Each structure stands twice: as C-alpha cells, then as structure tokens.
Amino acid sequence: MEKAQxxxxxxxxxxxxxxxxxxxxxxxxxxxxxxxxxxxxKVNAWVTAFAYGTxxxxxxxFVGYAGQHGWNIGxxxxxxxxxxxxxxxxxxWLLFAxxxxxMTKKLEAKTMPEYFEKRYDSKNMKIFAAIIIFVFLVPYSAxxxxxxxxxxxxxxxxVETWVWMLIIACLTAVYLVxxxxxxxxxxxxxxxxxxxxxxxxxxxxxxxHDSVGGLSGLFENLKNFQPIEGDPNPVTGAQxxxxxxxxxxxxxxxxxxxxxxxxxxxPQMIGKFYAIKDTAAIKRGTIISTAFCVIIGCGxxxxxxxxxLILGGKLPDGGVDSIIPSVLMEVLGNGTLGxxxxxxxMILLLSASMSTLxxxxxxxxxxxxxxxxxxxxxxxxxxxxxxxxxxxxxxxxVACSFIFATQNIPIIVSLMSFSWxxxxxxxxxxxxxxxxxxxxxxxxxxxxxxSGLVTVGIATLVISxxxxxxxxxxxSPEMGVCAMAVSLVVVxxxxxxxxxxxxxxxxVEKIFECYNEE
Length: 518
Known about the structure:
Layout: H1 3-26, H2 33-38, H3 45-56, H4 59-72, H5 78-107, H6 112-120, H7 123-155, H8 161-208, H9 214-223, H10 237-240, H11 249-261, H12 267-275, H13 279-305, H14 307-310, H15 323-332, H16 336-377, H17 383-407, H18 410-436, H19 442-467, H20 469-474, H21 476-496, H22 502-512
Helix pairs in contact: 1-8, 1-16, 3-8, 3-12, 3-13, 3-16, 4-7, 4-13, 5-11, 5-12, 5-13, 6-7, 7-8, 7-15, 7-16, 7-17, 7-18, 8-13, 8-16, 8-17, 11-21, 12-16, 15-16, 16-17, 18-19, 18-21, 19-21
C-alpha cells in the first residue's frame, strides 16, 4: 500500500472516531424535539457561523464547480466565490438572521414548512413545502456522494466508488442520528477548521507549483497559456487571464445569482438562524461566517483557475469532475510532507460534503416527520414519537441518498439539476416577505410558492420540446434565477389584490411584536 493511502486511512480513522464521539456527547442535549432539531435555540456564534459556511460549501463546489469553472473560465471564476461570500453569506446574515430568529421563536416554528403554516395560517402551505423539500433535497444529497466518490477514487483507484459512499453514509448517520442538530453543529465547527487549514495548504501548494509561479506569476502564465493540439474545449490565455470572465461574463452572473441568492430560500441554510441564541451572537456570527466563506469560496475557485497550468492543458480522463483530484495528486503526491497534506485535503473535502449532507438530511427528515405526516394523518403526534420518527427518517434518507447516487436513476439525476432553483424559487418569496411585511396575505404567499415551481416546470417543458431534456437541464441555473425573481414579485403583487380579514390582521400584528422583544 502506498504512503498516500496509508496516511489517508489513518486520517480517516481519527476523523471518524472524533465525529462519533461528538455524536455520543451530544446525545444528552437532543432528547427533546426542540433540542434534536435546533439545539434548544442556544447555539453560539462560532458554531452557527461555521455550520452555515460548511453547509454552503460541499465537495460538489470543489470537485465540480471550482474545477469545471476554473478550467473553462480561469481567474474570472473567483467572482463566484466573492459573490457567495458577500451576497449569499454577508447580506443574508445582515438582512434575515435576527428577524428569522425572533419570528420563528415567536411562532415556535422548528422547520421552514412549520414557519409557513404559522406565519400564514395555512396547513396546505406546510404540506406543499414539505413535499418540495422531500422531492428535491434528498436527490440533491446524492450529488454530494458522487462528488466525494470520484475524489477518493483518485487516491484509491482499486477501491470501488460505492465503498467510499457507504463509509460516508455510515459516518453521517452515526453522529446525526445520535446527536441531531447540536451534533451536526459542533462537527461543523471541527469540519470548518479542517476546511480552512486544508484550503490554505492547497492554495500554497498550487501557487508554488513550477507551472504557476506563485501569485505574481499566475496572471502572466495564464495570459501566455496556449491550448494543446486536439483539445476538445480549447480556451485561450486571454480568456483564462480575464478577471471579469471574458466571454463567460453572462454565465458568471447567472451562476453568482443562483449560488448566492439561492441560499436565501434554502431551508437547510435558513434553519441555522433558528438556533442561534441571541442578537449579540448574530453580530459575531456575521463576521465569522463571511470570513469563512471568503477563504473557502475564493480559495476553491483560485485553485480551480490554476488547473490548466498544473495539468498542462490536458483534461483528465475522468472529465471535469477529475480536475481537482488530478491537481491534488500533481501538487501533493510526492514527498512525505506532500502526502500528509494530501490526507488533510481529503479530510477537508470529506468534511465539506458531510456537513452539507447532514444539513440536507436533517431538513428533509424533519419536513416529513414534523410537517408532512402529522398534517396528512390529521392526528396529533407526541413530540417524543416525532423525535423518534425524525431519527428513523434520517437513517432512511441517508440510505436513499446512497442508493440514488450508486444507481444513477435517471429521474433522480434529473431532479439534482433543478434542486437549488426549485426549492429556493418556491420558498424565497413567501419566506422573505413574511419577515418584512404585514401586508402579505395567505393567497399571495401561496401564489409565490407555486409560481416558483411553475416557472421551472414550464421552462423545462418548452425547452425540452424544442431541444431535448438535456438542453433544459443545462439551462437549470437560469431557470432557478428566474423562479426566485418571479416568486419575489408575485408574493406582494397578489397580496395587493387580495384581502386579509380582521382576524388575520390581529394575528399578524401579534406576530410582528416579536421584533420589539428580545
């Protein structure tokens, strides 16, 4: 067995033991439903900030987006990381964190579907939201497995990809089922520290490579880059060195909007604000989380922009998903120090993915156990049974995600392409307007939620008829951005033309009193 494999296995074992211990220690704090889902709403700034950041960035960002966009666009891809940090993180915390914490505490809402039900007095909205979460977020988690599988396969080519997916599934299930949100939050803190160390090491190693020539030489070497003969996707040095993305400027803008504004409506992201303990913690968390996203987001795309130089312009056999793994093996595969750093980077990407996976699974399981089943059965379920059901569903959803990832089920693969756009497109309008305006009606909120789904659905149908489904899937980022914009417009417009009863006005007034309370 090679040194790289031995060091990686040792690092994996230490990491697995640490995650399992955190899950066991957190078990005592997750014996109630509120404790299991929200950590008793007493989570501090550092833990919440890292939980938000690590949920934001998974191995899909490193292996997929950073590798692909860095390869095809060059330095301009870094703007995606900047947009994620400023728009997806900083602005989200400034605008929504405190209001979300106060309102969900006032409503005693533990999930986003429950927030919709109590804010708008609509059980149907709660059921619809829970179904959207279940249908689109569980398949999304399968993409996380696939990203990690290709990465570990680069270091352990003799081991089947599904084996790594199974190990990841088991690790996630152990500490998530044992400790709930509080376990995931503290593991996110550990994972976040690992991610920062790993990204800094990889940036230094990538920039130090002879073909890159340091930060000062990166721009000049990219500018002088010449595509190799037979390159199926030749990109000129002028494109790679253009800091504004060159011919990919429009593409950059769309992806910045989807991956940044999209977080404003994703329940696994917004849920972090439910659990933070007070306003002071939010102020500190805003700074910490933004700094984390700058390091991880910009760092990932910076590394991706060096890939054509490091790999000599030759796309790896595994395609764009193999770009970052190939860069890793090239810059860290030699020497004892390089091999140790490679093991750290592997744990970095494992951490990034597991934090996203656990958040998605917990969101999906709670949507079904807390929101969907009680609403459909029309029977009150005791909190203890809901908590047990949530734990069981966490196991079920981890297993489902694993199966979806290994089987490449066509419908599941298709749903992955639209997951962010559909979920955020449905929720962003009713969620944001519900925090800021007393004038939003139940009909207006429901119309905004449905409009997000319909926008993507109609666009998919039209493009599929004209050019085939693959073309529609390729346009999913644009559809997602349109769905979010439509939802934000439809909610206030429909609310303007619909009326609330005096009872609704009184109920909403009492809800908004939460902003005057601490």
